Amino acid sequence: MTTDPDLPPRQRLAAVGKWPLVGERERLPSDEPWRLTLAIENREVGIWTLDGLRRLGAETRSVDFHCVTRWSRTDVRVTGIRLERLLAEAGLSSPTGFVSWVARTARRHSSSLPLAEALRLGAMLAWEVDGQPLTPEHGGPLRSVVPGKYFFKSVKWVERIDLLANDRMGYWEAEAGYHNGADPWQEERYVAGGLSREQLRGLLTTRDWSGREVLSLVAEGRDLAGLIARRALLRNANFRGANLAGADFEGANVSNACFAGASLRGAGFQNADVEGAEFEGTDLSGADFRGASLFGATFTGATINRGTRFDARQLEALAEAERAFLAEALQRAGVPDDEAKKDRPSD
Predict the structure, then answer these.
(1) What are phi and psi of 66, to 5 degrees?
(2) Are 280 and 303 contacting, i.e. CB atoms less than 8 angstroms apart?
(3) DSSP 8-class letter at 94
(4) pTM for this structure?
(5) Is the dihedral of CA 211, 213, 214, 216 positive or negative?
(6) SS3 (DSSP) at 217
(7) pLDDT tens per residue across span 184-237
(8) Spatial distance between the Cα atoms of 344 and 340, rounded to a whole number of angstroms
(9) Contact call for residues 224 and 206 (beta carbons, < 8 A)
(10) How much helix, strand and coil, in percent to the nearest 5, is found in the chain?
(11) β-strand 132-133 against 59-66: which pairing, if any?
């Protein structure tokens, strides 16, 4: 895979003008005016309206976004106020511990960082991106932006900031296996699931992983033909060079998994999450990706035949080079445009 030396490992630029929508989709409905509350161990020390925040002074910075699902946007102009400025406004000159951003969502999604690190990175509260108000689907009217971290550390719809003596990991870190460090240059994406050797041996023998959570699995070069992995959680798995002919990944999460050089002849990825997965040089003859989420996935050099299936709208989510490769490969394989359109799911 060709990499950009200006991007963290295994990241690809999103298509020009695209900001992929990932993570939570909507905030908690409320007629209450938006307010930001700052608290120390549940003791409120500051409350601001959106207009009040703007009156404190706006700053515009150029920031790179790096999503854990391998897409990046660079030189994004972000307007808002730095956390450091907000703390000073509340009279907090040298606080210590951790900062937790809390969202206005049904489960009050949050994410945390050591406070000293957040300040060093220039973490901020943002209300504009590229000169436009932040849209609701991307966290408007107010979200945190933490430069230098994977974007799951930048929380949408922030309505509260908690300063804590002890760390309080958020949902993605505590429940979904995301790495709490979130350093894109170190590829701190996921933490491996805690399987014993006996459990792993059993999975490799039975080849039925339906509904199992096996993060960061190393199965390089293994013969796993006919694997059943429906609705399994296999983020960051390494299947490089493996035989996965006829494997069933329907509804599975294989985001950031490596399938480079593997055989996936006749494999099914219907409605799966394959964001950021690598398929370079993979045999995808007869593989079915209809309904799968493809943001950040790479396919250059893969073998495609007439039986390979994608929805037409899926290609629109890919980076330009990947989209062009697949479109040309499908055309060479003899898949006509009207057949691709026929495969599109109904709205």
Answers:
(1) -125, 110
(2) no
(3) S
(4) 0.73
(5) positive
(6) coil
(7) 999 888 775 556 667 777 887 889 999 988 877 878 898 999 999 999 999 889
(8) 7
(9) no
(10) 20, 25, 55
(11) unpaired
